[in-house]
TrEMBL record, chain A:
Transmembrane segments: none annotated. PANTHER family: ARCHAEAL-TYPE GLUTAMATE SYNTHASE [NADPH] (PTHR43819). The keyword DNA-binding does not apply. GO terms for biological process: glutamate biosynthetic process. It comes from the Bacteria. Pfam families: Glu_synthase (PF01645). This is FMN-binding glutamate synthase family protein. InterPro entries: Aldolase_TIM, GltB, GltB_archl_type, Glu_synthdom.
Automatic annotation (TrEMBL), chain B:
GO terms for molecular function: oxidoreductase activity. CDD domains: GXGXG. PANTHER family: TUNGSTEN FORMYLMETHANOFURAN DEHYDROGENASE, SUBUNIT C (FWDC), TUNGSTEN-CONTAINING FORMYLMETHANOFURAN DEHYDROGENASE 2 SUBUNIT C. It comes from Methylobacterium planeticum. InterPro entries: Glu_synth_asu_C_sf (IPR036485), Glu_synth_lsu_3 (IPR012061). This is Protein glxC. Gene3D superfamilies: Glutamate synthase, alpha subunit, C-terminal domain (2.160.20.60).
Length: 448, 229
């Protein structure tokens, strides 16, 4: 019989064990909710681990296929958007576009920088909730004008000044949700553009005020075409939740372009519970959307633009290989401008966070001067330099995508195809509809 | 006076022709026949012309109008004069849902009744409805005036901001944060101006109206108001 120590502290003990259900993060949120009585609001997109493009790999050419010579043989990157019905479709040099982000959520300097960067790279940028600013139009060679439920700042002059119109039904961070821009960011200029009193919390509706459902959407698109004499490409943007049906209905309604935003896509301000628990990952949304267009005989006729967590040329190449025509970036573009830069670490610490994790974009205290309306912070961002950084980043993404495409033997990024891909995980294989690496198994499609 | 028959030429041709008119055009008065409920008739006008439409129109007639005067000798479908910036739109019959939705300016007069969501999200337009309006009218209305000679349906002015609502008849119910407010001389004077603009000066007594507006309790989100949403 073992001898029992006299002092119980000498007994072997089980080491402290954390719950996999009640993690430290979960418990901190419970304490925060209990103390404040209100849900957590933040910016950015889903932060939880999700099946993503990192779970896919390309099959480079070898004996069965031959590659193209890097730096020698052409690999096209240009994309035409809106040639289904619009008499003036837009042509971009790169399929990487800038997603809609509002003046109001972003500073004027940040919007200008996005326009400058996109123009240098030969691509488009997009307005947001709150309308079009002079700076934005002036610095954006190709500008997409968002037509949102709130219609803040909506006017026909800007509609006609735009190069394309994007009817926003939803976004990936909050499909089915509206928005709230807190009063701290409703300066006199922002309030004036939105016809609201300064300083109040501005609510954005989740539904359009003058139409409901796909049959009405078709008539709304018809109106927008009439107002612009049929010139402008008309996009329809949806948050990814039922991508097959939403894409089919958008196309049926007469869209020239469908924009599909996955749950990693960012937002200026939304409840954390909404961001993390509503919608589906970008990876899972693409194939059903492409299938919807194929079933209608409209693949490559109605262009598909995909956004939500696209960070590199590899991501771009994978999205295009799955059947999209272009991508849009938002969060990544802000990072290129200078968002969450460690150079502001001391100030992030003072805000109770750290560089790389800062997401209280709605509070308007962004040390990097991007998600703010405070002049002393906004002036920190040099729109010329920040625009240059964005252009550099877009160039790198395009070069990376070309590198991969050439390795797969493609003379244009649009020639990439699902057969160039395999998946590292069963989940990614199922979502992307490509084989698990080293097998011919596509979960849900072929036998094991 | 140019006439455009929509049974003989396509809508796009009408709208394109009207869009091309300069502010100093001599062709300043147009008539349109054969509308037959077509959508987006005279949408996007941008010149001080007048357009008279003989018959019923579909959705979004005179949508986003600027400067122009559009008269509809019939009924109007959803979203008549939606997002109007300036000018005048007159519906001689009834108007469907979302009349004057999100409009920033100008005057919309409906001789008959207007359906649900009249003036939804309005941003500065003046709307005068000689009949009654449906439910959820002036939802999230931001600015401008909505004058109703008849009755208002349920949830009038839900979550509205600074728009002013004048109703002569009954109100089925008020929406969240919408309250009846004192009708002072300045408001009677303002209402008189709107009635006059609608051609009703001397016919209607402004003192017969009640005024409704925002209690401004929901201007800043607070959890204690969660039950109001």
């Amino acid at each position: 019989m073992a001898e029992t120590p006299k002092d119980p502290r000498d007994l072997p003990r089980t080491k402290p064990r954390f719950s996999a259900t009640y993690t430290p993060d979960v418990m901190s949120e419970i304490r925060r909710a209990a103390a404040t009585g209100i849900y957590d609001i933040r910016g950015a997109g889903a932060k939880r681990p999700l099946p993503h493009f990192d779970d896919l790999l390309f099959l480079g050419a070898s004996i069965s296929r031959y590659p193209l010579e890097g730096y020698r043989e052409r690999c096209g990157t240009e994309v035409v958007l809106g040639n289904r019905f619009a008499s003036k479709p837009i042509t971009l040099k790169t399929p990487v576009t800038i997603a809609g982000m509002s003046f109001g959520s972003l500073s004027g300097q940040a919007k200008e920088a996005l326009g400058r960067g996109a123009t240098l790279a030969g691509t488009s940028t997009t307005t947001g909730d709150g309308g079009m600013t002079q700076e934005e139009r002036g610095h954006s060679q190709t500008l997409v004008y968002q037509y949102l439920p709130s219609r803040y700042g909506m006017n026909p002059d800007d509609l006609r000044r735009a190069d394309a119109i994007e009817v926003v039904i939803g976004q990936g961070a909050k499909p089915g949700g509206g928005g709230m821009l807190l009063g701290q960011k409703i300066t006199e200029r922002v309030a004036g553009m939105r016809c609201l009193p300064p300083g109040i919390d501005q609510r954005s509706a989740c539904r359009h005020p003058d139409w409901t459902g796909p049959d009405d959407l078709e008539i709304k698109i018809e109106e927008l075409r009439e107002i612009t004499d049929g010139e402008k490409p008309i996009y329809v943007k949806v948050g990814a939740s039922r991508p097959y049906y939403d894409t089919a209905l958008a196309a049926k309604s007469g869209a020239d372009v469908v924009v599909l935003d996955g749950m990693q896509g960012g937002t200026a301000a939304t409840q954390d519970v909404f961001i993390e628990h509503v919608g589906i990952p970008t990876l899972a949304a693409i194939r059903p959307a492409v299938q919807a267009l194929r079933d209608l005989g409209l693949h490559r006729k109605v262009q598909l633009v995909v956004s939500g967590g696209i960070r590199s040329g590899a991501d771009v190449a994978k999205v295009l290989a799955l059947g999209a025509d272009a991508v849009a970036i938002g969060t990544a573009a802000l990072i290129a401008l200078g968002d969450n830069d460690p150079r502001w670490e001391a100030e992030y610490q003072a805000l109770g966070t750290t560089a790389g994790a800062y997401d209280d974009w709605h509070e308007g205290n962004d040390p990097a001067g991007i998600t703010t309306q405070r002049p002393e912070l906004a002036s920190r961002l040099d729109p010329v330099l920040a625009g240059r950084r964005l252009a550099n980043y877009l160039a790198v993404m395009t070069l990376e995508a070309q590198t991969i495409a050439r390795a797969c033997g493609k003379s244009h990024l649009h020639n990439l195809e699902p057969e160039d891909l395999v998946a590292l995980t069963i989940e990614a294989a199922a979502m992307a509809g490509v084989p698990l690496a080293g097998t011919e198994w596509v979960p849900g499609k072929t036998g094991f | 006076m140019p006439n455009f028959d929509l049974n003989r030429a396509p809508l796009r041709e009408l709208n394109r022709t009207l869009h091309a008119l300069r502010p100093d055009t001599n062709e300043s008065h147009w008539t349109v026949t054969g509308p037959d409920g077509r959508h987006a008739i005279a949408a996007g006008l941008d010149a001080p012309i007048s357009v008279e439409i003989d018959g019923n129109v579909g959705y979004y007639c005179a949508g986003m109008n600027k400067h122009a005067s559009v008269v509809i000798n019939g009924n109007a479908g959803v979203g008549v004069a939606e997002n109007m910036m300036s000018g005048f739109v007159h519906v001689r019959g009834d108007a469907s849902q979302a009349a004057g939705a999100t409009a920033h300016g100008g005057l919309l007069v409906v001789d008959g009744n207007a359906g649900a969501r009249c003036g939804i999200s309005m941003k500065g337009i003046d709307i005068v409805v000689k009949g009654s309006i449906g439910h959820m009218s002036a939802f999230m209305a931001q600015a401008g005036t909505l004058t109703v000679l008849g009755d208002a349906g349920e949830a009038l002015g839900d979550s509205l901001y600074e728009a002013r609502l004048f109703v002569r008849g009954s109100v089925r119910s008020l929406g969240a944060d919408c309250i009846e407010k004192e009708m002072r001389d300045e408001h009677r004077e303002q209402l008189h101006g709107k009635l006059k603009a609608a051609g009703l000066a001397g016919e209607i007594d402004p003192s017969e109206f009640k005024r409704y507006g925002s209690a401004r309790r929901l201007y800043h989100f607070h959890v204690d108001n969660a039950g109001a949403y």
